[in-house]
Design brief:
- The protein is of the alpha/beta class and 345 residues long.
- It has three domains: 50 residues, lambda repressor-like DNA-binding domains (434 Repressor (Amino-terminal Domain), Orthogonal Bundle); 131 residues, Rossmann fold; 145 residues, 3-Layer(aba) Sandwich (Rossmann fold), CATH 3.40.50.2300.
- Helices cover 44% and strands 15% of the residues.
- The chain has 13 helices and twelve strands.
- The strands form two sheets. It has a six-stranded parallel β-sheet, with helices on both faces. Strands 7-6-8-9-10-12 form a six-stranded mixed β-sheet, sandwiched between helices.
- Helix 1 packs across helix 2.
- The longest helix has 16 residues.
- The termini are far apart.
- 45% of the residues are buried.
Length: 345
């Protein structure tokens, strides 16, 4: 017996689009209607009225799949999702995958069994399996913060490559040439993009062979601590460190202190993602800050529009910019002395 997925494949559309045509709800073009109706006729598809009726009764719940809720970036993101969903009358349930694709798949299956109306996904890796699983179930997905190759879905993220480039160029403007990078896991788009930004900036000053200055680890404080100790043990020692996320930067700061090195007097330090004011007594780190709350609001509203049939039929990729915030850890006061037009905050 043919299924709604079979009809979608024959018509070249998503299962949710077939559902809209059958129910005459939401947005679709006349051409799409004709293709879907032709596929239904060719396959002899008979809609399951009972199942369709159950599906129409929305649960008014969204699922938020995060990689590390202890990270303030994702905590802020979760709040943004909850606020946007709450305004629309939806509740949010979330899970924490610890950057594990196996956990991600497990939680996804649970959410689909609970018939959540839509999923906001921060992917643990680069596999498209989770998105494909949800789409086969007819559940809309918006990918947040990261890129997933070989999949067609809505996504909202920041420009990590450009943010990393700006941070490294800042260090170069301050006179640094031997700049080490503490990176995240290879294959994670945010880690890969930030490495690309670092390499682009280094190439512009003629340094393309800087592999000895780059390390990859996990997005954790312990990883930052261990990697920075390896970095400063090199001869000659790097004069500046770029940490690819906030936890790596915190770990690096502790590692430098344990090595007896002062920041920024001995080693400059910059990082990706800011820390909420409530977690710091004195803002110290120079960062490329991502607007986590705004990112979450945009992603949630996009998902809600998709559910209401008000989003464009083609998938949306929305890319936000980071903000360069210059503070003491980079030796940012030197920028003013050197006549650069960047401001010290």
């Amino acid at each position: 017996m043919p299924t709604i997925q079979d009809v979608a494949k024959r018509a070249g559309v998503a299962p949710i689009t077939v559902s809209r045509v059958i129910n005459n709800s939401g947005y679709f073009s006349e051409e799409t209607r004709e293709r879907v109706e032709a596929a239904i006729a060719e396959l002899g598809y008979v809609p399951n009225r009972l199942a369709r009726g159950l599906r129409i009764k929305q649960t008014n719940t969204l699922a938020l799949v995060l990689t590390d809720i202890t990270n303030p970036f994702f905590t802020t993101l979760a709040r943004g999702v909850e606020d946007a969903a709450g305004e629309a009358g939806f509740t949010v349930t979330f899970c924490n995958t610890d950057e594990s694709e196996a956990k991600e798949q497990k939680y996804l299956e649970v959410f689909l069994q609970q018939q959540v109306d839509g999923i906001l996904l921060v992917p643990a890796g680069s596999s498209p399996d989770s998105v494909h699983t949800a789409q086969k179930n007819g559940t809309p997905v918006v990918v947040i913060d990261r890129r997933v190759p070989d999949v067609s879905t809505d996504s909202v993220r920041c420009d990590s490559e450009a943010g990393a480039y700006k941070l490294v160029r800042l260090l170069q403007d301050l006179g640094h040439r031997r700049i080490a990078m503490l990176g995240g896991p290879e294959g994670i788009s945010t880690a890969d993009d930030r490495l690309a930004g670092y390499r682009r900036a280094m190439a512009e000053i003629g340094q393309t062979g800087n592999g000895d200055l780059v390390q990859s680890g996990s997005f954790t404080m312990s990883s930052g601590y261990e990697m920075v100790k390896t970095a400063v043990a090199k001869t000659p020692r790097p004069t500046a460190i770029f940490a690819a996320n906030n936890f790596l930067a915190i770990g690096a700061l502790r590692g430098l202190q344990d090595c007896g090195l002062r920041v920024p007097e001995d080693v400059a330090l910059v990082g990706f993602d800011d820390l909420p004011p409530a977690l710091t007594t004195f803002p110290f780190l120079t960062v490329a800050a991502q607007p986590a709350y705004d990112l979450a609001q945009i992603a949630t509203k996009l998902l809600l529009a998709r559910l209401a049939g008000e989003a464009p039929e083609t998938c949306q990729e929305i890319i936000l910019q980071t903000e360069l915030i210059i503070r003491q850890s980079s030796g940012g006061s030197l920028i003013r002395n050197g006549g650069c037009d960047r401001s010290l905050e």
